[in-house]
Write a structure and sequence with these properties.
Blueprint (H helix, E strand, L loop, with lengths): L1 E6 L2 H13 L3 E6 L1 H11 L3 E5 L7 H10 L7 E6 L4 H9 L4 E4 L4 H46 L1 H20 L8 H10 L21 H18 L6 H8 L21 H18 L7 H8 L6 H22 E5 L8 E2 L3 E2 L5 E3 L3 E2 L2 H12 L6 E5 H4 L2
Parallel strand pairs: 1-2, 1-3, 3-4, 4-5
Antiparallel strand pairs: 6-11, 7-10, 8-9
Helix pairs in contact: 2-3, 5-6, 5-7, 6-7, 6-10, 7-9, 7-10, 8-9, 9-10, 11-12
Bound molecules: fe (ii) ion (FE2).
């Protein structure tokens, strides 16, 4: 096991290196607290043995810094000192040390203390793994639950599922969202309209301006209703807050709290962007190619500009993927009459030989085959999938 040793005195450091190696571990030595912390960041050892008395950054500071840093795995810290008063021991433990050794340290004592450290680290790793499994199952259950919404209300369920996926895609690209928050963003998207479950059918497909007074009241209450439902589950407490805020507008003109800008939690702003994107396409029937134009109108007003910019990128990518789905590449030798050319055919130097779109007849196919024999064009051209017969 890698063990980080931190001491400002070379002689003590060498002795500890010798002991640790003798006990079958791999020592990493840091001279002084600052260097020790740098090595901890770099090498992620599971055990740190640090001297207490060091100039500038002392052992207690090392403990505090390690404890305050976010790390996936627990670091077991042993503080070594010539001090052996009860007060010192308490100060060491309060700074985040797990154990305390008084100098001079014997090899046998070190062996016994490291054994304790290893047991704690193993238990902690087991616990983290179990926690990870529970969390995975929990998110899986929520996904399944959101599919259930689809069986009760197809429009609402489909909307929630698409918004969930889009939230995850935006979160993955947003520089301020940590990787472990992507799943939370997805869950917030999956559940954002849970307050709409059970409302009279048809509300979801209407724009708020087209609703009657009663429908509008129900609609305006759905973010709070969603929050109340989700607050029943402790692990969904944060998500309940994002659901409450998913109709807040960046300019402060949304509901229910009229929060503005960064007062609205980031993940709620992401849900708002994904929700709008999906409504534009599915409810309002805006074509994929025209979504960006509609989103641009809301940039900085209803929606966070940074999130709109990310949605632009996603939209571009979706347009490209759609285009690929609609087109296939066909070898020039396999071309048949009736196929529709969808991409211009050019010489390598850019000179246009055949413009698209163009329905191919035998004459044009012959021409393309001639160009190919002259090495003037590549062996493949792009054809409209529907016309290719595949
Ligand atoms: Fe909503």
């Amino acid at each position: 096991m890698k063990i980080l040793l931190v001491d400002d005195e070379a002689v003590s450091l060498r002795l500890m290196e010798k002991y640790v190696t003798k006990l079958g571990h791999e020592p990493i030595s840091g001279v002084g607290g600052r260097e020790g912390l740098r090595l901890w960041q770099k090498t992620h050892p599971r055990i740190v043995i640090t001297d207490w008395n060091m100039p500038e950054v002392d052992g207690l500071q090392v403990c505090r810094e390690i404890r305050s840093a976010a790390a996936d795995l627990y670091t077991y810290i042993l503080v070594v000192s010539a001090r052996d008063s009860e007060r010192d021991l308490i100060a060491g433990l309060e700074s985040g040390a797990d154990d305390y050794l008084v100098k001079p340290v014997s090899l046998d004592e070190l062996r016994a203390r490291l054994e304790i450290g290893r047991r704690i680290i193993d238990l902690q790793a087991e616990l983290s793994e179990k926690y990870r499994l529970i969390r995975d199952n929990f998110f899986q259950t929520i996904r399944m639950f959101s599919h259930l919404i689809e069986t009760v209300d197809e429009d609402l369920g489909g909307h929630c599922r698409r918004v969930g996926a889009l939230c995850a895609a935006v979160a993955r690209r947003h520089p301020a969202v940590r990787p472990d928050q992507v799943r939370i963003a997805e869950t917030a998207g999956l559940l954002h309209d849970i307050g709409m479950v059970g409302l009279p059918g048809g509300i979801l497909s209407k724009k708020p301006v087209a609703m009657n007074t009663e429908e509008k009241q129900l609609y305006l209450a759905h973010p709070e209703q969603g929050e109340i439902i989700l607050q029943e589950i402790d692990m969904l407490d944060d998500i309940a807050g994002f659901v409450r805020a998913h109709h807040e507008h960046f300019n402060g003109r949304g509901f229910p709290d009229e929060r503005a800008g960064e007062e609205i939690p980031l993940l709620a702003r992401i849900v708002a962007g994904a929700d709008t994107y999906d409504n534009l396409m599915q409810r309002d029937g805006v074509a994929l190619e025209d979504v960006a134009e509609q989103l641009a109108v809301q940039r900085g007003y209803q929606l966070d500009p940074e999130i709109v910019d990310i949605l632009f990128e996603i939209n571009d990518e979706q347009i490209r993927q759609e285009a690929q789905k609609r087109h296939v590449s066909v070898k020039i030798g396999d071309l048949a009459e009736g196929m529709v050319l969808v991409k211009n055919v050019r010489r390598p130097n850019g000179v246009l030989l055949m413009p698209a779109p163009l329905k191919l007849d035998s004459h044009k196919i012959e021409k393309l085959q001639k160009y190919f024999r002259m090495n003037a064009v590549p062996d493949e051209v792009f054809i409209e999938k529907r016309s290719s017969g595949s």
